[in-house]
Amino acid sequence: MNNEDYGYDYDYLFKIVLIGDSGVGKSNLLSRFTTNDFNMESKSTIGVEFATRTIEVEGKKIKAQIWDTAGQERYRAITSAYYRGAVGALIVYDISKPSSYENCNHWLTELRENADDNVAVGLIGNKSDLDHLRAVPTDEAKNFAQENQLLFTETSALKSENVDLAFRELITAIYQMVSKHQVDLGDANTQGNAPKGPTISLTPAPNENKKKSANNCC
Amino acid sequence: MDLKQVAVDRYGSRDELVQRGVWRGELYRYADTDKGRGWLWKALIAEEQANNGNQFDKRHQMHVRRLTPPAVPKLTAPLEKPVIELDLRRLNDAELLQPEVQKTLLELMIRVLTIHNWTYKQGFHELLGTIWLQLREPNSTMTVFEKMMEQVVPIFYNETRLAQWEKHIFAPLLKVCSPILHDQLYREGNHTNLLWLLRWTRVLFLRELPMDYVLVIWDHILTGTYPIETLLSGIIVVLLLNVYGELSHPECDDDDLVEILLNYNESVSSLVDSAELCRMGSRLVELWFLQDVNSLRMICNTFLKLRFNVNQVDNNNS
């Protein structure tokens, strides 16, 4: 895997949250994407974890800051902090565990209640290496994703299949929304009108002189 | 020599063992601390239990007439059983993954949840697994687990209480001990510190510190004369002082702070000795109860000066 690491040098910082039931493989998706690691004995997440990776999309360096949360318990005290500033989310289920898929609706509701209206969302059917134990048909999940305007990918963090793709698609979708938002903003300003409707909640890259070479962020 | 041998050779009573051995740190100077902890915990807790009686039995004796046989709680599998099983399977130790150990741990967990009417939360399993590895026997494992959880669950596994603890105990203590770190961690717009405090407190540093180091802290918790909420506050303040340079760096932003504290084991370059950590943490607690602000500040300033040659100067003190 080409781990494009640009360190502190990036154009955009996107905060992405991983949600889904306990044991569906969120932490291993995170480690597969950020460090290309997979841990067979992955521990349960207590509270939250986060990691980052910088990739290039359409010539821009994008730092993805990915937050991983515990699947069993909802922490009211930190839920708002968890979703605050998130511009993307991946709802993860295990293709061999139907209850984890059925709960995606619940996760989507929680996301809609707590995150920005414009947050880009992907549905991930993880553990595709367990195809012999498949309990969630691909088409069913694909339809659910279409109905709810979600990106959809089946992944295997274990075999490193489609993990990069899933994150890249999401990051690209966010980037395109941001670009469009900037164009809209530009048009609106040209016409002397303030932009209407919900805006993308983008976390501005902090400490410009330290971490940024160029700031194209709105 | 292992902990058992040193304890037997040097101390005539449980109180001596607790006061001098554990709290003054003598035990850790003379013993090989990764051997004999199971015996130590049995010695520390069994005698206490013998003096006080089992809390559960006592509670029931108060409500049940003598002629009535003691009520035995009916064990029912909690709704969280699948999550418990999943979590137990994710314990990162070959011995804990043995089928018979898994079965015992599940039974113990369900028993404790039923007796105390607790809802299972992730983190319980790591505490139980760690205790099992020291004792390797169901009865004493359950005794120590209950002793630990009776302190931890009501505060750190209750979100409201956890937030109150942070607001009314931890943050004020940190502010007195290190206004600079306090201001850094409580800057307006920062992520809530519960993001990292939640894990630090719920699994009692298992994710942040080396195992042998954690077990010394647990010795203190299990023999504590201080309320756990204040003792942990003191210990956490010392652990934060231990990464003072990283946390107070002018370019350390909101996300960096959370990253450092969620990856404490990777962030820390030189860790204060575990017995010293507990001694200083408990000293902070004593001074906090006495509201001796000057001494609290002085201890922390001295710690920073001696360990890192840092002069902690703040607006209140300059």
Automatic annotation (TrEMBL), chain A:
<dbReference type="InterPro" id="IPR001806">
    <property type="entry name" value="Small_GTPase"/>
</dbReference>
<feature type="region of interest" description="Disordered">
    <location>
        <begin position="186"/>
        <end position="218"/>
    </location>
</feature>
<keyword id="KW-0472">Membrane</keyword>
<dbReference type="GO" id="GO:0003924">
    <property type="term" value="F:GTPase activity"/>
</dbReference>
<dbReference type="Pfam" id="PF00071">
    <property type="entry name" value="Ras"/>
</dbReference>
<comment type="similarity">
    <text>Belongs to the small GTPase superfamily. Rab family.</text>
</comment>
<dbReference type="GO" id="GO:0005768">
    <property type="term" value="C:endosome"/>
</dbReference>
<dbReference type="GO" id="GO:0005525">
    <property type="term" value="F:GTP binding"/>
</dbReference>
<dbReference type="GO" id="GO:0006887">
    <property type="term" value="P:exocytosis"/>
</dbReference>
<dbReference type="InterPro" id="IPR027417">
    <property type="entry name" value="P-loop_NTPase"/>
</dbReference>
<keyword id="KW-0547">Nucleotide-binding</keyword>
<dbReference type="GO" id="GO:0005829">
    <property type="term" value="C:cytosol"/>
</dbReference>
<dbReference type="GO" id="GO:0034498">
    <property type="term" value="P:early endosome to Golgi transport"/>
</dbReference>
<dbReference type="InterPro" id="IPR005225">
    <property type="entry name" value="Small_GTP-bd"/>
</dbReference>
<keyword id="KW-0342">GTP-binding</keyword>
<protein>
    <submittedName>
        <fullName>ZYRO0E08492p</fullName>
    </submittedName>
</protein>
<dbReference type="GO" id="GO:0000139">
    <property type="term" value="C:Golgi membrane"/>
</dbReference>
<dbReference type="InterPro" id="IPR050209">
    <property type="entry name" value="Rab_GTPases_membrane_traffic"/>
</dbReference>
<keyword id="KW-0449">Lipoprotein</keyword>
<keyword id="KW-0636">Prenylation</keyword>
TrEMBL record, chain B:
<keyword id="KW-0343">GTPase activation</keyword>
<dbReference type="InterPro" id="IPR000195">
    <property type="entry name" value="Rab-GAP-TBC_dom"/>
</dbReference>
<protein>
    <submittedName>
        <fullName>ZYRO0C10846p</fullName>
    </submittedName>
</protein>
<dbReference type="Pfam" id="PF00566">
    <property type="entry name" value="RabGAP-TBC"/>
</dbReference>
<feature type="domain" description="Rab-GAP TBC">
    <location>
        <begin position="31"/>
        <end position="225"/>
    </location>
</feature>
<dbReference type="InterPro" id="IPR035969">
    <property type="entry name" value="Rab-GAP_TBC_sf"/>
</dbReference>
<dbReference type="GO" id="GO:0005096">
    <property type="term" value="F:GTPase activator activity"/>
</dbReference>
